[in-house]
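Figure 6 in text form: structure in, sequence out.
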């Protein structure tokens, strides 16, 4: 529950950061507040023409008035993009601050959970019988997803925290080298992540459609509140939540990553704002300067990635130290029958029934 509540707060913070960047007038107010010269219509730096300045002209420039530029890049008609100041502030202070709170918060929560609950043991001990949980293709897809995500997470986190955490002790030259190399790795490994995401989605989507057992599972807190493990099919409700977070955030991160790789070629943020206005009745602006589209994409990409990192930290905990017997599913693909019966009782009955049918020579439905 504590973990779920922190995740909700994190989603909310991502939405607030991006929405605050989208709302133009608020940004203009921010620029004015932080720039007294702009507030009075004066040119910053005290530069004036014949001792006075054209307040109206200056106001228009600060509000993003865009002229036309003959023969040059059409984007250079925008002299000052005030929202850029807000973007810079979010990118350099709010994003690292909330990201650090979220990641450290999850690590602290898991440590407290481990201290209270300890390792979730196989209650009846290992039976010595195993059943096949994931085939080679499933495991290979999972590990491609996991390894690419970890590389993306480390190289991405370096872009958020590297300057303040790594640069001071590594020195400028070495930091520049690892950051530039990391950036190229990040750009290319993104494609491996997308391929793995599609594979995992296709292989497991049928097992992740919610059913009535999930409601019972959630009401019983997955058995954490006592009363034994609630019944579950191949994936329980907790795993289904992880699956859908991975798929939806994965798509969102991939799309915003694509927009960052191909600057000024997409209008996904403006399109999303338009969709949200017509479906949810929000009132986001729907016209963004090309550079603002990129700024929104950069904050969205980072915030979604940090959210997914936080969820995956919890997933890695449960797949390794948190639960006895779980990792076997992703290494050999074979799990102990007692582990399977405790966590996925309905699935075990289904597998045993299928095996009996095979032994009796009954025809099997196509998977
Ligand atoms: C070293 C890191 C990781 C470990 C040790 C690990 C371990 C596992 C294990 C043991 C399972 C099977 C659980 C079962 O049998 O019921 C699993 C499933 C899964 N993993 Fe991972 N995993 C890791 C990283 C990742 C990453 C980075 C992603 C996604 C970006 C991911 C996505 C999934 C999904 C969607 C499932 C199916 C749903 C679930 O069981 O929660 N895993 N993982």
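Output sequence:
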């Amino acid at each position: 529950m504590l973990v779920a509540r922190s995740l909700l707060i994190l989603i909310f913070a991502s939405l607030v950061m991006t929405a605050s960047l989208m709302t133009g007038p608020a940004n203009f107010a921010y620029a004015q507040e932080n720039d007294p010269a702009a507030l009075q219509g004066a040119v910053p730096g005290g530069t004036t023409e014949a001792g006075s300045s054209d307040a109206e002209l200056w106001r228009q420039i600060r509000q993003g008035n865009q002229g036309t530029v003959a023969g040059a890049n059409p984007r250079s008609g925008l002299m000052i993009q005030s929202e850029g100041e807000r973007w810079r502030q979010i990118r350099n202070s709010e994003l690292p601050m909330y990201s650090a709170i979220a990641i450290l918060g999850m690590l602290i929560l898991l440590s407290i959970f481990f201290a209270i609950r300890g390792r979730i043991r196989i209650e009846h001990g290992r039976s010595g019988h195993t059943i096949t949980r994931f085939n080679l293709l499933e495991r290979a897809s999972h590990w491609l997803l996991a390894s690419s995500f970890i590389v993306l997470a480390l190289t991405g986190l370096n872009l958020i925290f590297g300057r303040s955490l790594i640069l001071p002790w590594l020195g400028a030259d070495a930091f520049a080298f690892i950051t530039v190399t990391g950036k190229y790795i990040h750009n290319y490994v993104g494609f491996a992540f997308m391929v793995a995401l599609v594979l995992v989605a296709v292989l497991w989507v049928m097992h992740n459609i919610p059913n009535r057992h999930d409601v019972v599972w959630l009401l019983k807190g997955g058995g954490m509140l006592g009363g034994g493990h609630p019944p579950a099919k191949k994936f329980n409700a907790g795993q289904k939540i992880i699956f859908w977070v991975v798929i939806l955030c994965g798509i969102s991160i991939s799309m915003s990553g694509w927009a960052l790789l191909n600057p000024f070629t997409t209008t996904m943020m403006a399109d999303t704002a338009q969709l949200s206005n017509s479906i949810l009745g929000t009132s986001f602006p729907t016209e963004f300067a090309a550079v603002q589209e990129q700024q929104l994409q950069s904050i969205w990409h980072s915030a979604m990635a940090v959210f997914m990192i936080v969820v995956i930290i919890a997933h890695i905990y449960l797949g390794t130290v948190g639960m006895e017997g779980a990792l076997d599913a992703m290494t050999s693909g074979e799990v102990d029958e007692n582990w399977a019966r405790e966590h996925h009782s309905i699935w075990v009955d289904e597998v045993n029934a299928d095996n009996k049918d095979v032994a009796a020579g009954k025809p099997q439905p196509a998977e």
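Caption detail: The pocket of protoporphyrin IX containing FE is lined by residues 133, 142, 145-146, 149-150, 200, 235, 239, 242-243, 246, 312, 315-316, 319-320, 326-327, 329-330 (CB under 6 Å).
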